[in-house]
Description:
The chain is an alpha+beta fold. The protein has helices spanning about 1-20, 40-55, 65-75, 80-90, 105-110, 145-155, and strands at about 55-60, 90-95, 120-125, 130. Strands 2-1-3-4 form a 4-stranded mixed sheet.
Amino acid sequence: MKLGIGFILIPLMLLMGCQSTTHHGxxxxxxxxxxxxxxxxxxxxxxxxxQANGKLLLVVMGAQxxxxxRGLAAKFSTNQMQTILSDRxxxxxxxxxxxxxxxxxxxxxxxxxxxxxxxxMVINPETSQLLNEVNLSKWQSADSVPMxxxxxxFSSIGSQPVAPLHSSA
Length: 169
């Protein structure tokens, strides 16, 4: 009996952590995860705009139920980050729902799938090259990433040649 209760309580506790109502601060509307029927079109449009304006494409796949997605959105909404993001990126937020099958989005940029939320992809809009494959998983713990790391990363990504993740040997 006790073992059965444990099998019920442990998953419930894990779900409660994912749906935490911890207040992250004010979030700007553009950093809210809202479901759309035309995600691929939205990303393509953002990529065209980024290319035309000499910016990088920033695709964030997340969800409102995800603690780390909401934490990232709150940090993006700070004055310091807002300045960096508006100067350097064309940003599009994609709502993954409850892990809907949106694998075609990261696959467009030669990344096999999204494995957690948020998935933060920085893309060269001219070549469609994913620039942050080596540290993509870091942002899946976005709420615990220090603000200094946000500022350093988003201020510098794309300003240096990209080191390959895999050796070609």
